[in-house]
Design goal:
By secondary structure, the protein is of the alpha+beta class. The strands form 5 sheets. An 11-stranded mixed sheet has the order 1-26-2-3-6-7-8-9-15-16-20, covered by helices on one side. A hairpin with a 5-residue loop joins strand 2 (about 45-50) and strand 3 (about 55-60). Helix 2 crosses helix 7 (about 130-145) and helix 5 packs across helix 9 (about 165-180). The radius of gyration is 27 Å and the shape is globular.
Length: about 775
């Protein structure tokens, strides 16, 4: 009997080991090919694909089409699943992979019918060199087909990848629209509904669009909101219903800044760029260097390095030896609602959402000449949304021509034809010149049509369905200060703002901190600009620390005394070991939540289910004057005094943090711990998902300072580079190059991003070389 059990146990162990071996072989079967020679149909000449120690790819080809064909092959082998997620998220097709739980997300995007619109205007979207785009697409499918096993995530989901199409590259670009702009335009709709039911003075506070922290490139700071007196607004007399605070979402965007040659030792212009997005493993971006002859490029040769977006045949930000460029999200107003009457002419499109493991879902989309109707009212009227991403030209592949730009003027001409989400382009050239330009698709509203966010015959009667444009955009070339900076806050002056509109500008604290740091020096190099990117000083919260200690300083309340003790030393930084930073940040959050609830409460009862929470990005410009002036008419009705409100916020801060353990141990790093994972990690049990995540490192930095880092949001890349001096450039990228957890490039370079250690901008010495040959 003992021998029998041993035999059975041995068989079971062998079966388990065999299963593990099979699984391991299956997983390895989808690793990218790194070495050797492979045929690649469609090539005109040989192409080499080199990878350095971090997996950064250098592609050397005989022409542009060959280089992009090879890039497509590399993108597919390293990132096909992530590319697939981008096209599906834009098109509203995630349910076909993930099943019924993705249906609502698909509906939110399918209402825009981006795949149908893309295919209807595909030739325009492919730009002036459609053959190069199609070479990239062919390379993607050839790379996918060359894998021994389909990418590992499809095995997990029991799905097969669908071939790539030219329209999918356009959809990958449209996915960035969805990330950088709000496809539901909720804040504008929320404010419009609130406007209809609250006193004008209250609406003016909620809609105030600036603060003393503004740091525009042109014009003055908007300043804090003027406070109404009791005859204009008295919160104590308004009927109000409390509820959840307004949305406090991260402002998707970035920092970029530049110094001109007048501020460097050898006349070089230097550009710094860090794009703030949701963080994941692998990184959103893919580092690449492309080299090939091109008669239209300066010197007849393209040599461009930087960050590509898998799915799109271009280097998105980088340097080509002649110009360097980077982006931040512009937050101009790119969408308008219009109220359509019940008898408006409507076309109904029957959309079919394919659902894995379940029946297809029929989804009717009602559309007017203005755009799809997102909300229908009891009287039959509806709110139709016109959004630039819906219109022909929103994505146009001609921005790839930046790789051949010879100087700043030529780069700005290329920007005129850029079909990308509206961005702040900061650019420098080899001669030391710098420029800012609003780049990308924006509404061409025309005379009499203002960017109010909601158009109807009463408030904005001059508006017809507008087209989009990307030329003749606002710009600032060769600034007298020799410095440029943008950080998602307002950049333009009042006159220009009246044309481009406010799509949700971020608080200006980051931009002001960058501007002020640039003003402290008269000479810079790359490391000086990196130091600004990594600046985690809590300049913005300094006055909140003073306020907190005014509250706790003379109190006999034991909770407030404990809070005062642990925050008595102000670190002045969002450092991982700082307790005082975490305490002050939480105190401010508690105060703002209280004020937000009080300001929104009068709209909740009359609106009922129609109430939407707006994103109040500029609330600091309202809250701080309230706390300084402490007017009785604006005191939230639940409190007898402003002192009582602040003391209550401090007590809630103490209770919130003490519930997690001793107050003295509640460091910022404990709260701000990296949670950077592969998209499918959330579907796995914890013991398995940890293999698909980067280490849970405590992170310095926060939202309202240059070093933007929260657990799963922050700098998706950093770059500091001078055109012509790329060898001195610096980059960081979280999450690594490869989407395969068994790849040597899964997480490669991530530690440098965590700790802010400089990584060379240019690829290092080749460790692997793959040679692609024309097929016989």
């Amino acid at each position: 009997m003992r021998r029998t059990w041993r035999w059975i146990l041995g068989v079971l162990v062998a079966i388990v080991l065999l299963a593990v071996l099979v699984l391991w072989l299956l997983l390895r079967g989808s690793l990218a090919e790194l070495d050797g020679e492979r045929p690649l149909p469609g090539l005109a000449t040989k192409v080499t694909v080199e990878r350095d120690a971090l997996g950064v790819v250098t592609i050397t080809a005989g022409n542009k089409a060959d280089a992009l064909r090879a890039l497509g092959r590399v993108h597919a082998q390293e990132r096909y699943f992530e590319m697939d997620l981008m096209r599906r998220s834009a098109a509203g097709e995630l349910s076909a992979l993930f099943g019924a739980k993705a249906i609502e997300a698909d509906k939110r995007m399918r209402v825009h019918r981006l795949r149908a619109r893309t295919e209807a205007h595909l030739q325009d979207a492919l730009g002036s060199d459609p053959a190069a785009v199609r070479a990239y697409v062919d390379g993607v499918n050839q790379g996918l087909g060359s894998l021994a096993v389909r990418p590992w995530a499809y095995l997990l989901l029991r799905q097969a990848p669908r071939p790539w199409q030219a329209s999918d590259s356009v959809l990958a670009g449209l996915a960035m629209y969805a990330d950088l702009q709000d496809p539901s335009n909720q804040s504008e709709l929320a404010l419009e509904r609130i406007r209809a039911v609250v006193p004008p003075a209250l609406y003016a506070l909620l809609a105030h669009d600036g603060s003393e922290w503004d740091a525009p490139l042109a014009g003055a700071a908007r300043g804090n909101a003027p406070l109404p007196d009791a005859s204009q607004l008295d919160l104590r007399t308004l009927k109000a219903a409390t509820g959840a605070a307004a949305e406090d979402a991260d402002a998707v965007g970035s920092n970029n800044f530049a110094v001109a040659g007048a501020l460097t030792a050898d006349g070089r212009a230097i550009v710094a760029d860090d794009m703030h997005l949701g963080l994941r493993a692998p990184s959103l971006w893919f580092r690449v260097r492309l080299r090939y002859p091109d008669p239209q490029a300066a010197g007849g040769q393209v040599d461009v390095s930087g960050f590509s977006l898998p799915g799109v045949p271009a280097v998105i930000v980088g340097s080509n030896g002649h110009v360097a460029w980077g982006f931040t999200n512009s937050y101009i107003d790119t969408a308008d609602f219009r109220t359509e009457p019940a008898d408006a002419a409507v076309t109904v499109h029957e959309e079919r959402i394919v659902v894995a493991g379940a029946a297809d879902v029929r989804f009717p989309v009602r559309e007017t000449a203005w755009g799809p109707i997102l909300h229908t009212h009891a009287d039959g009227s509806g709110d139709a949304l016109r959004w630039v991403a819906q219109l022909p030209g929103a994505v146009r592949m001609d921005f790839a021509d930046m790789a051949r730009a010879a100087d700043l003027d030529q780069a700005l001409q290329i920007a005129d034809h850029a079909g990308i989400p509206a961005q702040n382009l900061v650019i420098g050239d080899r001669s030391g010149r710098i420029a800012w330009r609003l780049i990308g698709a924006r509404p061409d509203r025309g005379p009499g049509c203002t960017p109010l966010g909601f158009n109807d015959n009463h408030r904005n009667p001059g508006c017809a369905p507008w087209p989009i444009r990307s030329d003749a955009a606002p710009s600032l070339v060769d600034p007298a200060s020799h410095r440029l900076w943008t950080a998602n806050s307002r950049v333009v002056d009042e006159t220009t703002l009246g044309t481009v509109g406010n799509g949700g500008y971020d608080l200006g604290a980051r931009g002001r901190q960058i501007r002020d740091l640039l003003a402290t020096q008269e000479q810079f190099d790359e490391h000086d600009l990196l130091a600004i990117q990594l600046d985690d000083r809590a300049v913005f919260l300094q006055r909140w620390w003073v306020l907190l200690h005014e509250v706790v300083g003379h109190s006999d309340d034991p909770a407030l005394k404990r809070l005062g003790t642990v925050s008595s030393h102000w670190d002045g930084r969002a450092a991982i070991d700082s307790v005082s930073y975490r305490v002050v940040r939480e105190f401010r959050t508690q105060v703002l939540d209280t004020l937000t609830d009080a300001l929104l409460a009068p709209a909740r009862t009359p609106l009922g289910e129609d109430f939407l929470a707006p994103r109040l990005a500029q609330l600091e410009g309202v809250a701080w004057p309230m706390l300084q002036q402490r007017p009785a008419n604006l005191l939230p009705p639940a409190y007898t005094s402003w002192d009582a409100l602040l003391a209550d916020a401090a007590r809630r801060t103490e209770a919130e943090l003490s519930a997690q353990g001793p107050l003295a141990h509640r460091s910022w790093g404990e709260r701000n711990t990296a949670a950077i994972c592969h998209p499918v990690a959330r579907a796995l049990p914890a013991f398995a998902s940890r293999w698909l995540c980067m280490p849970a490192d405590p992170l310095p930095g926060d939202r309202d300072m240059p070093r933007v880092q929260t657990p799963a949001f922050g700098a998706s890349q950093r770059m500091v580079v001078s055109p012509g001096h790329e060898a001195d450039g610096i980059v960081h990228m979280p999450g690594g190059q490869s989407g395969h957890p068994l790849s040597p490039y899964w997480g490669a370079g991530h530690e440098d991003w965590v700790h802010g250690r400089p990584t060379p901008f240019l690829p290092g010495k080749a460790q692997h070389t793959l040679t692609l040959l024309p097929a016989r």
